[in-house]
From TrEMBL:
This is HIT family protein. It comes from Enterococcus lemanii. Keywords: Methyltransferase, Transferase. One of its GO terms (molecular function) is methyltransferase activity. The lineage of its organism: Bacteria, Bacillati, Bacillota, Bacilli, Lactobacillales. It is an enzyme of class 2 (transferase).
Length: 141
């Protein structure tokens, strides 16, 4: 894609700090480095987001995640955890519209990254949860 910054990085038209490359993916340091080692894994095939993946592309991209995660763990022995984040569409904080997976090493409670999950357990009845599950399950193809 002509105007895609990640496509330009993959094609080496824009420099990057490459971590890993094979026929399916290109992994490189995120220039923002939320924490040291913050890595992006991008499919070489231009797809906008997870909704554009077929099963083959998903298996290729997501099969590389543990390999690169283990490399981060080996490179940073003081790493205490790892967040794997995939944002899809603008409301979900996707800012580059070429699908990518963030691997964000975590070193301590004070590093510059957080995720908050609200507990809405009391807002839903058993019937509502059953209805939601059925609605989604019906669409799984």
């Amino acid at each position: 894609m002509d105007n895609c910054i990640f496509c330009k990085i993959i094609e080496q038209e824009i420099p990057s700090y490459k971590i890993y490359e094979d026929e399916a993916v290109y992994a490189f340091l995120d220039i923002s480095q939320v924490t040291p080692g913050h890595t992006l894994i991008v499919p070489k095939k231009h797809v906008t987001d997870i909704f554009s993946y077929d099963e083959e592309l998903a298996s290729q991209v997501f099969a590389r995640v543990p390999k690169i995660a283990r490399a981060l763990e080996a490179a940073f022995p003081d790493m205490q955890g790892l967040n794997i984040v995939n944002n899809n569409k603008e409301l979900a904080y996707q800012s580059v519209f070429h699908s990518h997976v963030h691997l964000i090493p975590r070193f301590d409670q004070e590093d510059d990254f957080s995720i908050h999950f609200s507990n809405n357990f009391e807002r839903y009845t058993t019937e509502e949860l059953t209805e939601i599950a059925a609605k989604i399950a019906k669409q799984v193809k």
